[in-house]
Structure formats: C-alpha cells, structure tokens
Write a structure and sequence with these properties.
Helix content is 39%, strand content 17%. It has 255 residues and is an alpha/beta fold. It folds into 2 domains: 1-39 and 86-126 and 172-255, Rossmann fold; 41-83 and 129-165, SIR2/SIRT2 'Small Domain', CATH 3.30.1600.10. Strands 1-10-9-8-2-3-4 form a 7-stranded parallel sheet, sandwiched between helices. A 3-stranded antiparallel sheet has the order 6-5-7, with no helix packed on it.
Length: 255
C-alpha cells in the first residue's frame, strides 16, 4: 500500500499515471464527496446520525406509520434543493469522464450533485431525493417543487408524498445494483471516494472490484477501506482536481 502522506507527490503521480494508462476506472462515491457542498454526511461526528436515529427517521416501516419524522429532517433539503451545488470534487470526476479515463460514477448519494456537475448516466444506488412521488396515485413531483405541509400531500389525491430514495428496510433498485456490480467486476481501477464503506450492498462493490483484479484507490481524509492499493488522504474537493489536472497534462502531452 502506498500512502500519499509518506510521499505525496509520487503517490499522486503514480495514480495519475495508472488512470491515464489503464483508462478504465469506475468511481464509487459516498456522502463525503458532498460534504464540501454543505450536505452533512451520516456517520461522521456531527453527521446526521449523530443527532437522529436512522432506524427511526429513515426507516420505511416508520415512514408508513408517520412520514412526519422523515420530512422533519429532510424537508428543508428538498425545499431548498436548488441551493446545493456541485463542488470541485464532483466537477473533477466529470472532468475525468470527459478525458475518457473514468467510465462511470456509482454513488450512494441521493443529492443528484454528480448529475448537476455534468457526469452522464450516474448509477444512483440509493435513488434520488429530487424525484418525489405520491404513495397513493403515483403523481410525480420534482424538488424543490413540493406542496407545503408536514408531511406534504399530493395535490391530486391528498396522498402522502415520498422521495424516490431507499430507506432502511427497502431494497435497492435492481437495475442500478446489477449495473454497479457489472462495473465493479469489469473495470481496471476503482476510486472509492468519501464513503465509510459500511452500508451493504454498496459496501461490497470495492470487494468485488478487488476480487476481479482492479487497483483500488481511496480518497478520504481517513482510511475507511482496508484493502486499498493507494490512499490519497484529503478532501475530495482538493484531491480529485489534482488527479484531473494531472491526467489532463498527460493527455495534452499525448503520452
Ligand atoms: P458516511 O457518512 O458513512 O461516510 C462519509 C465518509 O466520507 C467518511 O469516511 C468520511 O471520512 C469521509 N469524508 C468526510 N468528508 C470528506 C471529504 N471532504 N472528502 C472525502 N471524504 C470525506 O457516508 P456513506 O459512506 O456515503 O454512507 C452511506 C449512506 O449515506 C448512504 O445510504 C447514502 O445514501 C447516505 N447519505 C447520502 C448523502 C448525500 O446524498 N449527500 C448524505 C448523507 C448520507
């Protein structure tokens, strides 16, 4: 394992070279990449689950009984959805995709920031908070445009609204999971960015990639995944633009 802290420049240069030479990477992102956009992570100190018990506030069972709890902690985010913008980390991943070395972004995030940053065809494993639908008649709404009220109710049938996100107790979208597993088992590299690699089945993806021989690079201020080949400690918004800049230089030189 190489560590940026031991020899920062050469580790970074090595990852840039591998990205350029292999040209076949997939990224798995988590809440950490959006922290610099002002969206709290879950499990870090000060994260959402520090204050709210996820088994209560984000469980489908509780949601069916009383959706008010969920809307108490997520309503503001949904109603101010347009205020949250991609940061240099999201933009650098889109850049790496346009340079042809990153083939797909898989995210556990529900915030839609990769798509806002210009990443095409993002695999959203846990759904998207911008899509909201009525549990009774299926009418679709799009954040930030939801009716007032706690919980907001459908303007057509007065049914309860729910974002199209995976709550605890719900299954992941089958197609998204299948595509993510396919990406993990076929790409030569995986960038594991801003995730505590805790929530399965998403957390199995780096293991799958590794079993299939991929080089694993972690971008996170803390080591979260033990089986990495390279750890680039630091914030995604700082480290990822350096990667993109390095690949861009190699591309300009044509080597
Ligand atoms: P997590 O809270 O468990 O872990 C966050 C990780 O990000 C930690 O390892 C932390 O060290 C790292 N981190 C913090 N700041 C960082 C930064 N600036 N740059 C790089 N890394 C940084 O989050 P997770 O692993 O994504 O947990 C999975 C669950 O979190 C999923 O269910 C997901 O849907 C949900 N979630 C999503 C959002 C969002 O959409 N933005 C926000 C909170 C939680």
């Amino acid at each position: 394992m190489h560590e940026l802290s031991r020899d920062p420049q050469s580790t970074l240069a090595e990852v840039i070279r591998l990205l350029w030479e292999r040209g076949e990477a997939v990224a798995l992102t988590g809440a950490g990449i959006s922290a610099e956009s002002g969206i709290p992570t879950f499990r870090d100190k000060g994260g959402l689950w520090d204050t709210y018990d996820p088994t209560v506030y984000a469980s489908i069972e509780v949601y069916r009984r009383d959706p008010t709890l969920y809307w108490t902690i997520r309503g503001d985010f949904i109603r101010h959805y347009d205020q949250y913008q991609p940061n240099p980390g999201h933009l650098a991943l889109a850049d790496l995709e346009s340079l042809g070395v990153l083939r797909r972004v898989i995210t556990q995030n529900i915030d839609g920031l990769h798509t806002k940053a210009g990443s095409p065809d993002v695999i959203e494993l846990h759904g998207s908070i911008r899509e909201i639908f009525c549990l009774s008649c299926g009418r679709q709404y799009q954040a930030p445009h939801v009716p007032p009220g706690l919980p907001p109710r459908c303007e057509s049938c007065n049914g309860v609204l729910k974002p199209n996100t995976v709550l605890f107790g719900e299954s992941l979208p089958v197609d998204a999971l299948r595509q993510a597993q396919e990406e993990a088992s076929t790409r030569a590299m995986m960038l594991v960015i801003g995730t505590s690699v805790n929530v399965y089945p998403a957390a199995a993806l780096p293991e799958i990639a590794r079993r299939h021989g991929a080089v694993i690079v972690e971008v996170n201020p803390e080591r979260a995944f033990p089986l990495v080949d390279f750890w680039l400690p630091g914030q995604a918004g700082t480290v990822l633009p350096r990667l993109a800049e390095g690949v861009r230089k190699l591309a300009a030189r044509g080597n």
